[in-house]
User: What shape does this take?
Amino acid sequence: MSLPHAVLTSLLEKTTSGYDLARRFDKSIGYFWHATHQQIYRELARMEAAGWIEGFVPPDAGKTRKKHYRVLPAGRRELARWAAEPTPPMDLRDAFTVKLRADAVLDEVDLAPELQRHLSLHMQQLAHYRHIEAHDFAPGRPLTRAQAIQHMILKKGILYEEGEITWGREMLALLQSPAPLGAPHRA
Assistant: This one.
């Protein structure tokens, strides 16, 4: 995924200032595509230079004269072009999994505390996602197509966190179980 396309998507959802975009980004697209506020501001400047977006000061800006951004037709075309491209499946790069492999061959590393920390973080994130779901997608409430897509994206995050918690609990039980004497190492 590319940051400019994430920014275009967010700006199409709502025309806004760079500051408000960065804050909104953290609370939406930021759950699955991380970017610092500086990266977002740099990208806004590049996209404006490319003619994909336009900066303007809204009439109600007052003394702040805060610049807002909107997507231009060239930006819409670029986002549609990018969205139509095939996307490879996500690569899993997980340092903790490599540490577990190291534990399997070293047999002298205690990763249980780190795994407990991971479990706690996944449980916190799951609780946060469920709070969003309860607040934004109450059962029985009719949804627009866009809202239904956003709900499905949230469900993907919920399922991910549930899977990590289930796997983490199983791995923690394994790490905390005594190893049989004379058992061979397996890699």
In short: The chain has two domains: 3-84, 95-176.
